[in-house]
Design a protein that fits this description.
With 434 residues, the protein is of the alpha/beta class. The protein is built from 15 helices and eight strands. The structure holds 2-acetamido-2-deoxy-beta-D-glucopyranose (3 copies) and manganese (II) ion. Belongs to the arginase family.
Length: 434
């Protein structure tokens, strides 16, 4: 810094004297060693010794003595750069800049989760699937979209993690909290038959859940955060999580979404075939029917899309067992208040959090079925952190539609990643030793 200031003082002076002449003078020099380029870049473009010798110099030291102290090159001469030997690549062993390299979620190590059996505490896995959407496709690109959006994540304490200063979450860096987090890559899901694709996802989850935990205080098995994929995938995530961790009464499902997703399969699937009846708007009906959903202890958050038929609300609340918090309830109860209500519904039960990106307002994101009147990104981060202390056995982010050339791709990716980051905070804070 000291030399830099000196350079600033000298440069205008030199320029006012005779900048063009100075430039010509330097070009006419016989020795490349004495050029301004060399003073700044050193041997980046020419090896100074070879050039100096070619130009008749006997010794390098002689040349250094001959050099006048140009006002422009002065600071660079005082800070001559020494490049490593051409075969020395030790600096390549360090991680490159955040925007570089093969991308895993938050730069986590990539693990061979489906075949190897190493202990893992929390596994990220992608479900690149969008055969179940009723409107806009593109969520098959969501897993890698979320990874791209996560490139600035991966460690360090955040001044906004946790909603109050004394919270454990505030002092927690989930990536360095003693738990082993890995990115398993994606489950290979066929894009040609949703039945086979969903079964592949189920087997993938089962294989990951079978890993033992590494350093968990609470769990014997690996917990999973799934990057979707349209919302249909949650049925398989829930099934495997329920089979691994579930209590007989089911998992408390915390469902962030603009839509209830318990719609009558005969209506939303059009009643065409059994195949058509399972989709991203009916999977929660099937999850409730299968017993994965803890009735009266599960909740929708952010609801605002119109109901399709007159029986939807009753079917949702009575048959499927969901409470509902609408997007406008955030205005009434505040974001922190919403989190308290969710916690009172869930209690100490094992919970599964599924987050449809369309919970965010339409202005932020691209997703399967965009709806107006959604939540801001700050409201969502506050609600999520307000869930500190709940027992999350699994999470997913879905409807992350980052198809090529779609609008809002960058913020869609970033917000998906940020929601997963909050999930990792909740999952690790619950799992810290006292
Ligand atoms: C396990 O977690 C504890 C508590 O967070 C931590 O101190 C310890 O270093 C972790 N062990 C390993 C092997 O990472
Ligand atoms: C983990 O396994 C141990 C030993 O089998 C068992 O005592 C404990 O209850 C298990 N913990 C959970 C959370 O399942
Ligand atoms: C859910 O709550 C309703 C109304 O409070 C009650 O009638 C019903 O029995 C409860 N269902 C379960 C499974 O607890
Ligand atoms: Mn949904």
């Amino acid at each position: 810094m000291h030399w830099f200031l000196i350079a600033l003082t000298f440069v205008p002076h030199a320029a006012s004297l005779s900048a063009p002449n100075n430039y010509e003078y330097r070009l006419s020099q016989e020795n490349a060693k004495e050029s301004l380029m060399h003073d700044i870049f050193g041997s980046l473009m020419h090896d100074s010794n070879i050039i100096a010798e070619r130009n008749g110099a006997h010794r390098n030291e002689q040349l250094l003595e001959q050099q006048e102290a140009s006002p422009i090159s002065f600071p660079f001469k005082m800070n001559q750069l020494h490049y490593p030997d051409i075969d020395d690549l030790t600096d390549f062993k360090q991680r490159g800049p955040l925007f570089s390299g093969i991308v895993t979620f938050a730069h986590l190590p990539q693990d061979e989760c489906f075949f190897a059996r190493e202990p893992i505490d929390i596994a990220i896995v992608g479900a690149p699937f969008d055969l179940g959407v009723s409107y806009n496709s593109g969520a098959r690109f969501g897993p890698n979209g979320a990874r791209q959006g996560s490139r600035r994540l991966g460690g360090g304490n955040s001044p906004i993690r946790g909603n109050y200063r004394a919270s454990k979450l505030r002092r927690l860096d989930p990536y360095n909290a003693g738990l082993k987090l890995v990115d398993c890559g994606d489950v290979p899901m066929t894009p040609f038959d949703s039945r086979i694709a969903l079964n592949q996802l189920y087997r993938g989850h089962h294989a990951i859940h079978k890993h033992s935990s590494f350093n968990s205080t609470q769990f014997n098995n690996t917990r999973i955060v799934t990057l979707g994929g349209d919302h249909t995938i949650t049925l398989m995530n829930l099934r495997s999580a329920y089979e691994t961790f579930g209590d007989p009464g089911g998992l408390a499902v915390i469902h962030f979404d603009a839509h209830i997703d318990t719609w009558d399969p005969k209506v939303l699937g059009g009643g065409i075939s059994d195949y058509a009846s399972l989709n991203h708007g009916t999977f929660l009906h099937f999850a409730a029917e299968a017993g994965y959903v803890a009735k009266n202890h599960s909740v929708h958050v952010g609801i605002r899309a119109p109901f399709i038929s007159g029986i939807d609300e009753k079917h949702d609340a009575v048959d499927c067992g969901f409470k509902t918090l609408t997007s406008k309830d955030v205005d009434v109860y505040t974001a922190k208040g919403i989190a308290e209500i969710i916690k009172s519904i869930v209690g100490h039960r094992k919970a599964y959090l599924t987050f449809d990106l369309d919970t965010f307002d339409v202005g932020y994101i691209n997703s399967g079925t965009l709806e107006a009147g959604g939540l801001s990104s700050r409201e969502i981060l506050t609600i999520l952190d307000g869930l500190e202390g709940i027992n999350l056995v699994g999470c997913d982010i879905v409807e992350v539609s980052t198809a090529p050339n779609t609008v809002n791709s960058a913020s869609t990716e970033l917000l998906a990643a940020q929601v997963v980051d909050s999930m990792l905070g909740l999952m690790t804070v619950f799992d810290q030793p006292e």
